[in-house]
Amino acid sequence: MKTDVLIVGAGPTGLALALSLKKAGIDCIVVERRLDIQNTSRAAVIHAHTLDVLEELGVTRPLIENGLKLTRFCMRDRSQKLLQLNFDKLPTGHPFLLMIPQDRTERILLEALLEAGGAVFWGSAAEAIEQTPEGVTARIAGTGSGIIQARYAVGADGMNSLVRQAAGIGFAGGTYEESFILADVDIQWPLGQSEVSLFLSPEGMVVVAPLPQENRYRIVAAVDVASEHPQIADIQTLINTRGPESDIEIRSMIWSSRFRVHHRVAEHYREGRLFLMGDAAHVHSPAGGQGMNTGLVDACFLGRILADVISGRCDERHLDRYEFKRKPAAEEVLRITGRLMGMATMQNIVKRRARNIVLRIMDRLPPLKHKLEMNLSGLSRKHAARI
Q1: Sorting pLDDT into bands at 50, 70 and 90, what band is 280?
Q2: Fold designation for 2-70+94-173+262-345
Q3: What is the pLDDT of the chain when averaged over all its residues?
Q4: Where are the domains of the chain?
Q5: 267: buried, middle or exposed (CB in 10 Å: 19+, 13-18, 0-12)?
Q6: Is 224 exposed, middle or buried (0-12, 13-18, 19+ CB in 10 A)?
Q7: Are residues 350 and 70 in contact, defined by beta-carbon separation less than 8 angstroms?
Q8: Can you give the pLDDT at residue 228?
Q9: Is the dihedral of CA 91, 11, 224, 171 positive or negative?
Q10: What is the pLDDT of residues 218-261, one digit of tens each?
Q11: Which of these, 38, 3, 6, 17, lies nearest to 109 by C-alpha position?
C-alpha cells in the first residue's frame, strides 16, 4: 500500500493532521493500535488560539457547539480567591476557554476526516519503520497488517513513540515526583459552571473544571502516592481537604485514572522523512491545559508545510520550518507549565504564604494579568503558528 504521508496515531493530533492533509488534496493513511476512541481521555480544555487555528479545518464551530464556554480561570487557597484571569477581552474571535472532553474532540475531528474522504485503520499497530532517501516503509500488524510505503511518516503516537525511536531522536527531560489523579465526577459544585478553579491548599493542589454535561466536573490533583484505581472516597477526600471550605458531596464517578507526569522535549522534530508532533515531541505538566492544544497547533502547521512540499509549491528545505517554529513554542509551554507546577506543589509554609501574597498583588496589576491570559490562551505564541 502506498501513500504520501503515514500518520502513526489517531489521537487528536493525528486526526487533525490527517484532516489538514485531506483538505489540501494530499493522500494519507492513519494507523491506530486502539480499536476505537476511548472516553477515559485526559485533555478537557481547548484554548482561544487553538480554536483560531482550527478554523482552517472547519471544526471550530462544532467543537464550540459541543463544549462549554468559560471566561474565568481562578487560583484559590481553599475559599480565598488569590488571582482571577479573565479571557473575555482577549484579541481573538474566541475569547473564552472551551471545556470539552478529549473523546468528544476526537469524534468531531474523526467525523470531519471521514467527510473529507479520509479513514483510520483501527486496531493497526506500527511494528517497524525504516526510511531511505526515497521514502518510508512501515510494517503494520493487526487488522490492517501489511507493508505501507510513504513519502513521509509522522509520529503522533505518544510519549513512547515508535517513530521517534526509529528516527533515533532523543527525548530530554525528567519526571515529576508526584503522581496525578484524574477523574470525571457528578457533583453539586458551589462555584457552579462559571470558572476553572485551581486550589492551592496546604494539602496540595487540585483543579476543578466544569464539563458540558450538567453537574459534571473534571478533577485533577497531584498526590505523593495515588492508588492505581482511585475511588469516590479518594476524590471526596481531595475535595474536602483542598477545595472550598463547605460541605460538598460527590454523587457519582464516571471514570478515574492515575498517571505520572513527565517534562520532556524531543531534541529534534524531524529526522529526514520522519516527523514528530504532540506527545511524541513534547510532554509536560497538565497545569494550564496546554498539552493537547500545543499538539493540535503542531498538526495544523505541519499539515500546511507537508502540503506545500508534496504539491510542489515549495522544495524540501521548507520542511525545516516545522522544527524552527514549533520546537521553541513547546519549550515555552514547558517553562510556563513548569512554573505553574512548582507554584502549585509548593510545600514550605513560608514559601506558600509568600506565593499567596504575590498572587494577590498580581491580581491588582492588569498588565501582568493580561500577559498571563495571553500565555495561557496560547495567543502569545501566534507567531509560532505562522509559516
Answers
A1: very high
A2: FAD/NAD(P)-binding domain (3.50.50)
A3: 94
A4: 2-70+94-173+262-345
A5: middle
A6: exposed
A7: no
A8: 79
A9: negative
A10: 999 988 877 878 999 999 999 999 999 888 999 999 999 988 88
A11: 17
